[in-house]
Design a protein that fits this description.
The protein is about 35% helix and about 10% strand. By secondary structure, the protein is of the alpha/beta class. The protein folds into 2 domains: about 240 residues, Vaccinia Virus protein VP39 (Rossmann fold, 3-Layer(aba) Sandwich), CATH 3.40.50; about 150 residues, Alpha-Beta Complex (DNA Methylase, Chain A, domain 2), CATH 3.90.120.10.
Length: about 400
C-alpha cells in the first residue's frame, strides 16, 4: 500500500505508517533541514537489514561516514523521493512530475499530511492577529489538488484543535465541502496522543476522508489503559549539563518495559543527540524555583519570580512561561527551538532545559532517529523545531493500522 506524505516535516507521520507496513512513494517538504532528516531516515529503512547498516551507525555517531557518503548508498529513486519544495500553485506542476516519475504505474492508495498549524492554534492566532488573510489557513486547498490528481482511496489530515473552530468553524466547513466535491466523505475527531501510549498530553484533530462509494466509517480508537509517565522515558538517559554537545552517549541503565515495547530503544547500545542548550545563571535560578514549586504540586507563574530575576516586565500574559516537564508532559511545540523555558528538566540535579533526545522521546521517536540541520553539524535548534512540529510516530502507527483495515 503506497502513500504520499505532504507537508512531511521530520517524518513522524510517515514513520508510523512505514511501521504499519505502508510504502512511501514521496515526501514533500519545504524545509531543507527536515528534508535532510527525511533522507537520513530513508537511509535507515533502506539499510537496516543489510550489511551496510553499519555505515548508518557510523554516520549518526560521527565516526568516519559523511552525510554525502550515506546518501550515496541510496538508490536514485530513494534519493529523489524527498521533494524539497513548497506546495503551491507555482510549484505543484514540478512536484506532480516528480511524483509521477517516482510512482510509475503504481497507484497511490493513501495521502497523509498536516499543513502548518500555527494559523489555527490559540498561540498562533494571537501572534497573527494583525494578519487576517494568513495563507496557511487555506493550505487544505493545495492538499485537495493532490487528492484530485492521484485519487487515493483514503487520506489522513492532521492538525491542531483550532482548525475546527477557526473563524467560527468556517475553515473546516469549507474544507469538508471542498473535499466532498472531490468525491470524499470527510470526518474528524479530536484525539489525545496519550491514549496511543505517547507520554504526552497532545490533543490533535485527525481528519480521515475516503471515497464516498466505499461506505466506510471513522475507526474506533480504543484508548490505552497502560499507565505511563515521564520516568518511563527519562530514567535510562545519562545525566548531562547545560550546553552538552557530545554526538552520542551510552545509556545509564537498562531499558524499561515501555521503551522496549514501543521500540523507542530498539537494540542500539548508545543514544544520539542527548544534547542541550547552554543557560545563563539567572535562567537556572528561575528553573530551580520552578522545580521547587512543582515538587509542592504548583506551577511557577511569572508574577511569583522575584523582580530582580524576571526576564520580562509583562506579568499578566503567558504566566506559565517557565514550565517544568511533569509526570505527564505537556504538549511539545516548535517554540522549544527558541528557548527551553517551557520544558525544564524535572530534577534539580540536572538544572537545565530538556535535551533534543528527551524532546524526541516525549514525541515517541525511536533513539536511532537522527534529526538533521541544513549543514552537517550539531543541528540543535533545527532538531527542536522539527520535533515540536511532528506527529508522534506511535500515534501515527495506531492510526495507520486502522487505515490498513479500512483499505482492505
Amino acid at each position: 500500500m503506497n502513500f504520499i506524505d505532504l507537508f512531511a516535516g521530520a517524518g513522524g507521520l510517515s514513520e508510523g505508517f512505514i511501521r504499519a507496513g505502508f510504502t512511501p512513494i514521496a515526501h514533500v517538504e519545504m524545509d531543507k533541514a527536515a528534508c535532510n532528516t527525511l533522507l537520513t531516515r530513508t537511509a535507515y529503512h533502506q539499510l537496516r537489514h543489510t550489511p551496510e547498516f553499519s555505515k548508518y551507525i557510523s554516520y549518526i555517531k560521527n565516526e568516519g561516514v559523511s552525510r554525502k557518503e550515506l546518501y550515496n548508498l541510496l538508490p536514485d529513486k530513494k534519493k529523489e523521493s524527498v521533494i524539497n519544495l513548497p506546495i503551491g500553485n507555482q510549484t505543484n506542476p514540478i512536484i506532480f512530475s516528480k511524483i509521477d516519475a517516482l510512482k510509475g504505474d503504481q497507484t497511490i492508495d493513501l495521502i497523509v499530511g498536516g499543513p502548518p498549524c500555527q494559523a489555527y492554534s490559540v498561540v498562533g492566532r494571537g501572534a497573527l492577529k494583525h494578519k487576517e488573510k494568513d495563507e496557511r489557513k487555506i493550505l487544505y486547498i493545495q492538499y485537495g489538488k493532490f487528492l484530485e490528481r492521484y485519487q487515493p482511496r483514503l487520506f489522513v489530515f492532521e492538525n491542531v484543535p483550532g482548525i475546527l473552530s477557526s473563524e467560527k468553524g468556517l475553515h473546516f466547513d469549507n474544507l469538508r465541502e471542498y473535499f466532498g466535491r472531490l468525491g470524499y466523505e470527510v470526518h474528524a475527531k479530536l484525539l489525545n496522543a496519550y491514549d496511543f501510549e505517547v507520554v504526552q498530553n497532545r490533543l490533535r484533530v485527525i481528519i480521515i476522508g475516503w471515497k464516498s462509494e466505499l461506505n466506510l466509517t471513522y475507526p474506533e480508537f480504543v484508548p490505552s489503559e497502560i499507565d505511563i509517565n515521564r520516568d518511563d522515558i527519562f530514567s535510562d538517559l545519562p545525566a548531562i549539563s547545560p550546553g552538552e554537545s557530545a554526538r552520542y552517549h551510552h545509556y545509564a541503565s537498562a531499558t524499561t518495559k515501555y521503551l522496549e515495547r514501543t521500540e523507542i530503544r530498539n537494540g542500539l547500545d548508545f543514544v544520539t543527540q542527548h544534547i542541550t542548550r547552554p543557560h545563563n545563571i539567572r535562567d537556572l535560578e528561575i528553573y530551580r524555583l520552578a522545580i521547587e514549586r512543582l515538587e509542592l504540586g504548583e506551577r511557577l507563574t511569572n508574577n511569583q519570580i522575584p523582580e530582580n530575576m524576571r526576564t520580562q516586565s509583562n506579568i499578566d500574559d503567558f504566566l506559565d512561561r517557565f514550565k517544568v516537564v511533569d509526570q505527564r508532559p505537556h504538549t511539545m511545540i516548535a517554540h522549544i527551538a527558541k528557548d527551553g523555558h517551557h520544558y525544564i528538566h524535572p530534577y534539580a540535579s540536572q538544572l537545565r532545559s530538556i535535551s533534543v533526545r528527551e524532546a524526541a522521546r516525549i514525541q515517541s521517536f525511536p533513539d536511532d532517529y537522527y534529526f538533521e540541520g541544513v549543514k552537517e553539524d550539531q543541528p540543535r535548534s533545527a532538531a527542536f523545531r522539527q520535533i515540536g512540529n511532528a506527529v508522534p510516530p506511535l500515534m501515527a502507527k495506531e492510526i495507520a493500522h486502522e487505515i490498513k483495515k479500512m483499505l482492505r
